[in-house]
Amino acid sequence: MAEKKYGKHILKDVIKEPEGSFMGYSVIAHEGELDVDCSMGYHCISEPTEFDIPHAHEFAEILCFLGGDPTDIRDLGAEVEICLGEEQEKHIIDTAAVVSIPAGLVHCPLIIRNVTKPFVFLEVSLTPKYGPNVARTKKE
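^ thats the sequence. predicted structure below, dont judge the formating
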């Protein structure tokens, strides 16, 4: 069968096996696979975990914390602590929320605790590639 003109825009290889604290499959597109000025990660969190290194990016990032029940995503079923800014201002999230992080804003640690049911952690970054080489830590 001949390749369709727009078939390259249907991506199935970004669905990855679970690893670490993630449950179920994840969507990981951090290597330019989306062919747009955006990268993303979609994960199901089912147990406490943390991302502990404060850092900033040269691009905007959006972190979404969404309850795992698609009929009521407001019910997070966990507590998320995130620190923002150089002064490490702490925020506690215990219901669905979106954290908008402008370019240059230091964020983390991000500590997930009291997980009573799986929830979705979705990160969207306005850069085609995301990884250690595009983040700068607070210590730099």
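Residues 27-137 form a domain with the Jelly Rolls fold (CATH 2.60.120.10).
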